[in-house]
Structure formats: structure tokens, C-alpha cells
Amino acid sequence: MSTILMETKSTEKLIYQQEDDIDSTKLHCETLEAHNTTLCVENIRLKFEIEKAKEEFEELLTKISVYREKIEAHAKMFLEADSKLPVMSELSEKQQMVKMLKEKKEELMHDLQNPEGKIIKQVQRKIARLEEEISTIKQSIIAKNDMLEEEKKSHVKLRKDIAVQNKRCDAILKRLHCQLNKVQSSKRQWYWNIQQMEKDAAKLRKRLGIAE
């Protein structure tokens, strides 16, 4: 009998405990439901705010797109206006020239790295042509040097001949001077002799009484 009572009390205690657990669970469920309701309301509010923000963002994007189109139109207009300026035209030409020079440089660098490249072949041909010209010039210089040596020899011989002729002319001049001096001396002697003869003739005429 006592055992039955103890089991009954134990069962009742267990039932009370389970009822307390059920009440606690219900309370917790109600709290969760209230929190869930609050979250649902908050989610709905956030959804409306998100939709509103999305609409505002789309409006802002539309305004930005319109503003961008206006900016692009203005930029295009300014670029067209600038492109018509002499400075911009010259700048564009310089940029094109720089681009062309860069491309030419890259082409040349690529060609220079290729042993069979066009530039290497051109340089080799130029070197060969220059070597031929140098060889021709050297041969011409040698021939001209030979001619110069011959000319020098001729000039030496000519100077010797001129020196000989000068000596001969000097000797002839000396002889001519001597002959001239002799002639002048003879002339003076003849002139003196004539004067003496005239004086003697005058004396004779005077002695003879012959009028002049």
C-alpha cells in the first residue's frame, strides 16, 4: 500500500513537473511567436523601405544616366571644338607622329634582332658598297700619288733646267754687258778722236786761211 502511495506521489510530482515544463514551453513559444511577429512586421517594414530605396535608387540612376548623357554631349562638343583649334590639330599630328615613330622603332628593334632582317641586309649592302667605294678611292689615291711623284720628278728636272738656263742667261748678260761697255768705251774714244780731229782740222784751216 505504501509502495502504491509513493508511486502515486512520484507520478503526481512527475506530472506537475511536466505541466511546469509545458507551461514554460508554452511561455517560450508565446515569446517566440511575439518575437516572430515583431520580426515579420520589421521584415515587412524593411521590405517597404527596400522597395522605396530601390525606387529612389532607380530614379537616381535615371538622373545620373541623364546627367552622364549631358556630360558626354558637352564633352563631345568640347572635344570637337578643341579638335578644330590649331594647337589641338598640331597636338594630334604630333601624337600620330609619336605613334608612328614608336611603331617604326618596334619594327626596327624586331628587325635588328633578326639576322635575316631587312635592316641588317640593307646595312650589309651599304657596308659592301662603302667598302667598294673605299677601295676605288684608295686605288685613285695611289694613282694620284704616282702621278704626283712623276710631277715632282718633272718639277725637279724642270727646276734644274731652269737653273742651267738662268746660269746661261747670266753668262750671256755678262758678256753683253762687257760688249756694251766696250762699245760705249769705243764710242767715247771715237767721239774724242773725232773731236780731236775736228780741232786739228780747224787749226789747219786757220793756218791755211781757209774759211769754214
Automatic annotation (TrEMBL):
Keywords recorded for this protein, A-Z: Coiled coil
Coiled-coil regions listed: 43-140
Protein name as catalogued: Coiled-coil domain-containing protein 122 isoform X3
Source organism of the structure: Geotrypetes seraphini (Gaboon caecilian)
Upper classification of the organism: Eukaryota, Metazoa, Chordata, Craniata, Vertebrata
